[in-house]
Amino acid sequence: MSSAPSRSSADPLDEALTVAVGAVSARVAAVGAANPVVLIDGRSGAGKSSLARRLVSTWPGRGRVQLVALDDLYPGWDGLADGARYARETILLPHAKGTIGVWQRWDWETGERAEAHAVDPSLPLVVEGSGLLTAAAAPLADVRVWVDAPDRSRKDRALHRDGDTYRPHWERWAKQEDEHLVRDEPQTLASLVLCLP
Fold first, then answer.
1. Contacts of 184 (CB under 8 A, 6+ apart)
2. What is the DSSP secondary structure assignment for residue 6, as one 8-state letter?
3. Which label site among 3, 73, 103, 167 has the fewest CB atoms less than 10 Å from its CB?
4. Residue ranges of domains in the chain, CATH in brackets
């Protein structure tokens, strides 16, 4: 009898993420640039952060890859659209122009911007977060990803991850995501749509 784990006992999310990373990596490799930009959008709990971290850790190119999460940029629980605009202005536009971008982390406890971080335009860049794919941001990326997942799975993952900190704000944040879906139609701007369990 084999000691290898059976396929049925494997984690479906883990398997789906492995396939998803392969799909995104293939798109990145096809770009053929030394400093490609990947944007990953999707609703809360869809798997954006997990996908982004795995992509960076198995990057198809050489050298360092920069990763920015919009969770570090949103100016509070009502800041989905403002965080996405801030990312475009301070990170994506400078990167596209070949200049160093500088963004400041949002301190959720003090309610203000904190330490500054630089983004090197000569290096690859992965940015992930809800609200990211807009008509203004899409042209600044080489690979644009929309991540989808069932509502129940998303909510379970998000609340398991952030627990009581997020629970009172779930509906408030979901409303902003709904507005983003209607206003920006991010799925139509994506070059790759991924569905996770």
1. 131, 133, 134, 135
2. P
3. 3
4. 36-195 (3.40.50.300)
